[in-house]
Amino acid sequence: MVFFNSSTYRPFLLSGFPGLEDSHPVISILFCALYLVALMGNIIILVVIRVEQSLHAPMYFFLSMLAATDLGICTATLPTLLQLFWFNVCEIDFDACLTQMFFIHVFSLMESGILLTMAFDRYVAISNPLRYTTILTESTITKIGVGLLLRAVAVILPGPFLIKRLSFCKANVLSHSYCLHPDIIKLSCSDHRINSIYGLIIILITFGADSVLILFSYLKILITVQGIASKEEQFKALNTCVSHICAVLLVYIPMLGVSIIHRFGKHVPPMVHIIMGYVYLLIPPVLNPVVYCVKTQGIRTRILGNLLKLQQRVL
Fold first, then answer.
1. How far apart are CA 42 and CA 40, in angstroms?
2. I want to staple 262 with a disulfide (CB 3.0 to 4.6 A). Which of 102, 182, 274, 279 is the partner?
3. CB atoms within 10 A of CB 179
């Protein structure tokens, strides 16, 4: 058996939809439409929050972090997807693949951490509204953002170096049009148990811990809301959490599905792996702006107001 150590920089081959290669240009139109929605939606949220002074509040600062993270995920995955579906260029350099993998996982981990801080934000806003802005000051929010970035980088940084210690055989075809850690280590023909254990530990101490703390935050929110006498005020308090709950479900359900399929779905059809991979990375950036624009009154009002002003100028 011929071995290719990572130092030889043997390129990987990206995959689209096996058997549908002739339809890739048509499929690319769908992907471009999704990416356009994701990019425009998240940019609009960032611009509206930046321009409108009334939206300079903790909830909207965290929302802008989420939008920036979604833009990062789109930026990390779009180049290889376009080179495959538009130009039929399948090869990706080994180091380029590791770099893409690093940024995809860093942004995904940051997204999970931001969703946790947004759950804490909702708890503080409901349980202690009078001290809301004094607890979550701009300085505190900045420190939280920097902390989430450092956590993500520190946790994901060992991944590329652990992969470089592996050897790779002739198999070099990835399951997606981008690079993910589980997908790369599957191609190794040397012992990659350390990499698998590392990946599992990362999931447990980051995504697992974040999801438990998010659930705990909402239990505290429910307990707090039960103490509110007015049913109308209870509904109003819970309604402020709807968009965040949707965002959590949009991130964690696909992530859970991808993790389960990669680790236990050996007999699952390859097409399921491929579709779940795209759902995992595309659905949150596409739908998060839609959810927040529809369910968050401050964002919705400002966007509609600006659209009406624009219409009046045109007419």
1. 6
2. 182
3. 26
